[in-house]
Structure to design on (658 residues):
């Protein structure tokens, strides 16, 4: 029944409002809260029954027709006394089947209303993204009744992500659209959850989607309570199939608990979930994910996991438990996702033992990096690395070099880097599986180096890569070798890097030029315009420079040359300033000159130039003296306020020393 509030305006006149003054957004919530408070004071007549409220919709359920009549009359009188009005048109009085919140509810079950299903199925094929989103929103409300809903709508969501406003329908998407309508029209009746009975959850995964059926016993069979469907996150999609089953079970349990309310639930799955989680969870899962799944699968007493061989919902709903499937998840993971068939994480017998280490540190604002490969007594190889090399990248490079040097040998390799150890033992396979993306769906760091591990790891005849704790007291040959590798990597970082490696330091991993266009905000564009106009009227600036040239000398401006002697280049919001005895000054004209240079360079060099390319250009055009002062080069952003004529100098980051 639809309830509206009767509001007294004067002592002689009453006004009925269906929408309160708070508007469409907040009125339902406020009205529902007030109605709930008023209903607390209602005393129902004798008899067993229940009153349910959702905003302005009320549902009375009783065991007998007489009790239902008594409760209905009592409630209507109470609402009238409280100033509410009931919509006679929408009221459904004393029925065994009613429409409540769009569902057709009867004894022990609920179905989708026929009118609701027909309205959705009569929707024509959407032609725009907005229309398709509307259609998916309507079907998503019915997803509990549609088996494999996530698989059916996957091609439709792919149309949305293409980026075009108008849809380009494919055969697969058209077939999915038709199948979704058919599944909706044939949607079965779902049982209402009965917390006095145990629950059964059949869980599986397919195409990166966790699928499940929640059911309860009904005689010799099981009746479905809900069909569950939810997409795995980006991280879980890169795990082995058996570990993806663990993620699917965890997701389905979380969704099923919305219906079970903490009652006992038996989870049926075709993988040895508990064994996989305990044995391989630490290798493949982050600490946060591991603790999350542990809390769901291990530490809850309302869940029992049973291994079965169900492969379709018909077998599950028939009531048969089935036989345990013959499938060793641990062996499958080892065989499918090992970086090398013989790669071990325990030492090999009668094999050489090597140690690797990478180092990256900053001295006098200049970064030094290097790596080393050693035995416990002698150095096999050590070299410096470009100054933009991080510690993690240096560790991976050290491991790559060790594998190449160990070609055709049986070798034990120790590293004190947890990052490098997990990359080679597990993460490399994860990232290869999901396209070099991290758990947030973004590109991972050091992607090229991780891919470069693919070939070298096949070179040794047998290889074992182990992790060893760093910075321990030397009490064994292993700790002595790790200490030697650490010391030699730091010493190697102090060496000179060949010229080609210096140039490579300015280029991002695997790229000669950075793709994309420079992005300027309104402030940048306004600033360039102000500076250009200022110098057109008051000062001569450097003539237009050739494309890809860099301004390295300051124009003759007598007013400022005694106060400031910088060498500046700026492109877009980026600037590299080499400080040669430059102190902070408030000379507005000097700073404006810098901005005019920026405007000239922007115009001539054009779009698509980023800091890595700027560094390369500046290095090529710098003098020997300027290169010696490389550690003083800073990436800065000058912001000019034309109203107050003040300059804000905002340092961003070191570009050539980081």
């Amino acid at each position: 029944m639809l309830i509206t509030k009767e509001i007294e305006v004067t002592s002689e006149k009453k006004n009925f409002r269906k929408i309160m003054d708070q508007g469409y957004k907040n009125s339902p919530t406020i009205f529902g809260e007030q109605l709930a408070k008023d209903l607390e004071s209602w005393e129902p007549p004798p008899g067993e029954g229940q009153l349910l409220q959702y905003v302005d919709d009320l549902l009375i359920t009783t065991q007998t027709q007489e009790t239902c009549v008594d409760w209905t009359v009592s409630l209507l009188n109470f609402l009238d006394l409280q100033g509410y009005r009931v919509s006679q048109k929408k009221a459904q009085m004393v029925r065994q089947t009613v429409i409540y919140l769009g569902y057709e509810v009867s004894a022990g079950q609920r179905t989708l209303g026929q009118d609701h299903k027909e309205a959705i199925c009569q929707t024509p094929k959407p032609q725009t993204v907005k229309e398709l989103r509307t259609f998916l929103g309507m079907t998503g409300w019915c997803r509990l009744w549609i088996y494999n809903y996530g698989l059916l709508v996957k091609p439709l969501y792919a149309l949305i992500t293409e980026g075009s406003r108008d849809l380009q329908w494919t055969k697969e998407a058209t077939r999915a659209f038709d199948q979704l309508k058919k599944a909706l029209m044939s949607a079965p009746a779902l049982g209402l959850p009965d917390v006095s009975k145990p629950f059964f959850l059949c869980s599986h995964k397919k195409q990166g989607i966790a699928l499940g059926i929640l059911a309860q016993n009904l005689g010799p069979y099981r009746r479905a309570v809900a069909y569950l469907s939810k997409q795995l996150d980006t991280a879980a999609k890169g795990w082995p199939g058996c570990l993806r089953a663990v993620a699917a079970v965890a997701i389905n349990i979380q969704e099923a608990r919305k219906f079970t309310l903490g009652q006992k639930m038996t989870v049926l799955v075709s993988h040895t979930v508990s064994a996989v989680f305990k044995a391989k969870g630490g290798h493949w899962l982050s600490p946060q994910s591991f603790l999350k799944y542990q809390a769901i699968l291990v530490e809850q007493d309302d869940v029992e996991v049973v291994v079965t061989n169900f492969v379709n919902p018909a077998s599950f709903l028939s009531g048969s438990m089935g036989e345990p499937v013959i499938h060793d998840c641990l062996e499958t993971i080892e065989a499918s996702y090992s970086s090398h068939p013989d790669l071990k994480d325990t030492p090999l017998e009668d094999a050489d033992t090597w140690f690797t280490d990478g180092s990256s540190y900053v001295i006098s604002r200049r970064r030094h990096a290097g790596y080393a490969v050693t035995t416990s007594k002698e150095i096999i190889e050590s070299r410096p690395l470009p100054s933009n090399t991080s510690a993690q990248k240096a560790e991976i490079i050290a491991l790559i070099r060790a594998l190449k040097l160990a070609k055709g040998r049986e070798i034990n390799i120790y590293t004190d880097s947890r990052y490098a150890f997990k990359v080679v033992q597990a993460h490399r396979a994860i990232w290869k599986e999901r396209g070099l993306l991290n758990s947030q769906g973004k590109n991972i760091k050091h992607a090229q180096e991780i891919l470069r591990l693919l070939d070298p790891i096949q070179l040794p005849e047998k290889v074992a890569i182990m992790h060893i704790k760093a910075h321990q007291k030397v009490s064994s040959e292993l700790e002595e070798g790790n200490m030697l590798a650490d010391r030699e990597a730091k010493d190697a970082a102090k060496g000179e890097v060949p010229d080609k490696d210096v140039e490579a330091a300015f280029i991002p991993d695997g790229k000669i030029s950075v793709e994309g266009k420079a992005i300027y905000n309104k402030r940048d564009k306004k600033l360039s315009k102000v500076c250009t106009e200022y110098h057109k009227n008051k000062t001569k600036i450097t003539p237009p420079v050739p494309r890809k040239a860099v301004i390295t000398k300051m124009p003759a401006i007598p007013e400022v040359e005694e106060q400031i002697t910088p060498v500046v280049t700026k492109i877009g919001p980026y600037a590299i300033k080499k400080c040669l005895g430059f102190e902070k000054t408030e000379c507005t004209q000097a700073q404006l000159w810098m901005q005019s240079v920026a405007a000239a360079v922007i115009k001539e060099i054009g779009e698509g130039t980023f800091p890595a390319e700027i560094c390369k250009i500046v290095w090529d055009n710098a003098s020997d003296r300027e290169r010696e002062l490389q550690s003083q080069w800073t990436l800065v952003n000058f912001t000019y306020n034309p109203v107050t004529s003040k300059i804000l100098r905002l340092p961003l980051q070191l570009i050539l020393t980081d």
Observations:
- The longest strand covers residues 352-363.
- Confidence is low (pLDDT under 50) at residues 5-14, 500-518, 538-614, 631-658.
